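ok new one. same drill as before - structure tokens go in, u give me an amino acid for every spot. 213 of them this time. try not to just spam alanines like last time pls lmao
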């Protein structure tokens, strides 16, 4: 499957091999094993205490931490409020080009930002591409995402893998969305940010990373 759920295998080309949703209620602990060789924790709700073998850190919504090499497990603890995080693991290079959370909601006023589209659109999210792979995990809301020529309905717990060079968009939402994202595995010019055909040149998608039905 192209859209995957926690514990399911991502497409073969993906260097993120697994993602897990972690939730700790107020003043409770959840311990997870590092899967490696690369592990990233990004908080999607609340503020938590992250305990490693040699340190304790406070981590807040939209902040992320790369687990140090040799770390075998970590504990996420809720404070006076619950905390939620996504644990990405896999094998990618040392560079991370972006990680955090983003919202999407109805906003018809800015629907023509980015590259032009032919499908229905009612959000301000722009159709764009990157010089690196990106992974979205939906944590709130639902709606329709577009990757390349394919569209998918997504809901909380779904992971959307987006290969370098493929246009992607979040044109429709049924309820306001919050999603986590991770950007790794750069190629080509390794430019940062949202890229558009009309400004940055035509996208050069990698055929092996094409989306499927």
């Amino acid at each position: 499957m192209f859209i995957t759920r926690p514990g399911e295998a991502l497409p073969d080309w993906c260097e993120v091999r697994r993602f897990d949703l972690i939730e700790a209620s107020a003043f409770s602990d959840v311990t997870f094993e590092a899967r490696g060789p690369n592990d990233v924790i990004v908080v999607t709700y609340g503020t938590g205490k992250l305990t490693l073998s040699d340190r304790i850190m406070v981590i807040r919504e939209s902040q992320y931490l790369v687990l140090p090499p040799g770390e075998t497990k970590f504990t996420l603890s809720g404070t006076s409020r619950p905390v939620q995080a996504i644990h990405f693991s896999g094998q990618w290079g040392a560079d991370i080009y972006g990680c955090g959370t983003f919202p999407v909601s109805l906003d018809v006023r800015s629907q023509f930002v980015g590259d032009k589209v032919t499908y229905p659109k009612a959000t301000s999210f722009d159709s764009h591409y990157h010089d690196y792979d990106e992974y979205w995990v939906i944590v709130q809301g639902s709606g329709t995402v577009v990757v390349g020529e394919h569209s998918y309905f997504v809901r909380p717990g779904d992971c959307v893998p987006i290969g370098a060079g493929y246009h992607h968009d979040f044109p429709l939402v049924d309820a306001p969305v919050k999603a986590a994202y991770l950007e790794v595995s750069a190629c080509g010019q390794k430019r940062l940010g949202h890229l558009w055909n009309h400004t940055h040149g035509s996208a050069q998608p990698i055929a092996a990373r094409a989306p499927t039905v």
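The chain has two domains: 16-90, 98-200. and btw The mean pLDDT is 94.
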